[in-house]
Each structure stands twice: as structure tokens, then as C-alpha cells.
TrEMBL record:
This is L-lactate dehydrogenase. CDD domains: HicDH_like. Belongs to the LDH/MDH superfamily. LDH family. SUPFAM superfamilies: LDH C-terminal domain-like, NAD(P)-binding Rossmann-fold domains. Its main location: cytoplasm. It comes from Cohnella thailandensis. The gene is ldh.
């Protein structure tokens, strides 16, 4: 990424894409945003509306409408185009429509000379991130899915309702698919540095009502509850995207649970799944391998199997892609 201007292109400016742009503007994360959508009128209206934020923000972010060729000198391209899950279905059910979108879009972006980082938010995000990696032929370090970042945030928020601390004082990750087979790695959840499992053992009277299976289910189903009640989820995931973009542009080296391509980590290869990763200007600098319990390893393998099955249903993907390790 050689651009001196911190430029982000957002493809798909529905609820998620426009909310992401709003977060980027209000957090002063980048200098320029390009909105790309199949409907020009919607993209133009969103850019106009968002431009009216500038008088009330700390810095000015230039925002304009563009097309895939405008991604050429972008530092990051956020992929948010796609349909919402249908209540009662699964995110994996969106694979066919997402494949139709990105199998034609990614080659167009790459043909213009794009050499930055993709941040994928479209569902099913693990499989779509894998698809984007294969089609783009970029190193795995430069294709990042939002993955279980939002699920990990939901887990921390839920735990903070039972244990009276700020959610930001809760540390831990949801691993696996951003979907029904995800699971919290309870063996690595800490509150202020103290393992949650130790807290439960030492304070049964205070926290005996805390049911880990129930919290895991609520974490998994949180998106569906929001979807059923208001028709879409966008604020949480938009801030998750903004967090990833900021971590990359600021070279933060923050650890976040994202969809990443595994190349031997956790004993897996050629699969994209939610795991903790160190994010920097290079994209994914390193994947963090947690020492999982036997039960957690079994849950992880189950999630891998479901993702592999979904990826196998895709039409043939070009295989002459870089498998370089994250740098």
C-alpha cells in the first residue's frame, strides 16, 4: 500500500456499508471514502447524507461515489455487498448469491491494479473470505473477514451483564464459523486478567446463576434476535469493520478474532475460519494459536467441517493463488 492518503473503498452501501462509512467518519479513521454500489442513486444519496456529518466531526473525511476501477489506489476495500439472512435460515444459505456477486466483482477490482487489503463482511463471511482470497490471488495476510469479531464482542457484553464490569475488561474470543457452529473458548476468557472459570469456582454464591451454555447460545443467536425484531443487523458489525480498518491503517498490532486463512495453524490448512489474529499495516501479521481443551478442539473441528462442506459446494475456483504465510 503506497498511497499517502488513507483511502477506503466500501462496496455495497446498504445498512452495513453505510453504517461502516458513518463509523469511519465519526472516528476519523481515514481521509477518503469511496462508496460503490450497483445502484448509483443510492450510493450518491448516501454520500450526500454522510457528507453533512463533517461540520460536527473532528476532521474532514472526503466522501464520493465511485466504481470498482476506483479501488486501484485504495488502502482497504471493504466488501459489504450481499443479502441479509432469512429468519429461520442460516448464513450459509446466502452462499449462492454471494458467489454470484464476488466471482465477477473481485476480478474487476484486481484488474484495475488494486494492491491493498480486503476486509470482507458479506455472509457467509468465512466462505466468502476464502473465495475472495482465491479469486484475488493476494497473500492470505491481506484478505481479512470480520468473522467472529462481532460474536466476541457480543460475548463480552453478555458476560458484563452477569459480572459487573465494563465489557472492555472482559477478554476472550468466540472461535470457528460466524454462524451456528461457533463457540466461546471458555478456557481463555478472563475478567481483569483472572480466568473466568476460576472466578466461578471461587465465587459460587455470587455467580452461580451464570450458565455458560446459555450465554454461548445467546451469543450465537444474538444476530438472529436483532434480525427478527428489526429486519437487519448493522451497527455492531459496522463498528467491527471500523475497528479492523483502524487497526490496519494505524499499524496497531491489536489482536482481534477475524476470519483468516489457516496454513497449518490449529492443524488446519486451506480453510478460512474465525481465530484471533494480530492486525497491522501488513494486514494479518500473525495468527494467535490458543491452547484449546479437548472439547474446544472437537468443536473447532466440527466448525471446520461445516465450512469445508460449504466451500466444496462452490464452482471451481482458480488454484494458482499465493499460499504465503502472514507477514
Amino acid at each position: 500500500m503506497t498511497s499517502k492518503t488513507r483511502k477506503v473503498a466500501i462496496v455495497g452501501v446498504g445498512f452495513v456499508g453505510s453504517s461502516c462509512a458513518y463509523s469511519l467518519i465519526n472516528q476519523s479513521i481515514c481521509d477518503e471514502i469511496i462508496l460503490i454500489d450497483r445502484t448509483y442513486e443510492r450510493a450518491y444519496a448516501q454520500s450526500l447524507d454522510l457528507s453533512h456529518c463533517m461540520d460536527f466531526t473532528h476532521t474532514r473525511t472526503k466522501i464520493r461515489v465511485g466504481e470498482p476501477s476506483d479501488c486501484k489506489d485504495a488502502d482497504i476495500v471493504v466488501l459489504a455487498a450481499g443479502a441479509n439472512p432469512v429468519p429461520g435460515g442460516t448464513r450459509l444459505a446466502l452462499l449462492e448469491s454471494s458467489h454470484a456477486i464476488y466471482s465477477s466483482l473481485i476480478p474487476r477490482i484486481m484488474q484495475c491494479g488494486f494492491d491493498g487489503i480486503f476486509v470482507v463482511a458479506a455472509n457467509p463471511v468465512d466462505v466468502v473470505t476464502y473465495l475472495v482470497w482465491k479469486l484475488s490471488k493476494l497473500p492470505r495476510s491481506r484478505v481479512i473477514g470480520t468473522g467472529t469479531s462481532i460474536d466476541s464482542s457480543r460475548l463480552k457484553t453478555l458476560l458484563s451483564e452477569y459480572i459487573p464490569v465494563d465489557p472492555r475488561s472482559v477478554h476472550g474470543y468466540v472461535l470457528g464459523e460466524h454462524g451456528d457452529s461457533q463457540f466461546p473458548a471458555w478456557s481463555h476468557v478472563t475478567i481483569g486478567g483472572k480466568p473466568l472459570l476460576d472466578i466461578l469456582v471461587q465465587h459460587p454464591q455470587r455467580f452461580g446463576r451464570l450458565n455458560l451454555d446459555e450465554i454461548a447460545a445467546k451469543t450465537r443467536d444474538a444476530g438472529w434476535e436483532i434480525l427478527q425484531r428489526k429486519g437487519s443487523t448493522h451497527y455492531g458489525i459496522a463498528n467491527a469493520i471500523a475497528h479492523i480498518v483502524r487497526s490496519v491503517l494505524n499499524d496497531d498490532y491489536k489482536i482481534t478474532a477475524v476470519s483468516a486463512i489457516l496454513d497449518g495453524e490449529y492443524g488446519q490448512r486451506d480453510i478460512c475460519i474465525g481465530v484471533p489474529a494480530i492486525l497491522s499495516r501488513a494486514g494479518i501479521t500473525e495468527l494467535v494459536e490458543l491452547n484449546l481443551t479437548q472439547q474446544e478442539q472437537e468443536l473447532f473441528l466440527r466448525s471446520c467441517s461445516l465450512i469445508r462442506e460449504a466451500a466444496a459446494s462452490l464452482p471451481a475456483i482458480p488454484l494458482s493463488c499465493s499460499t504465503a504465510s502472514a507477514e
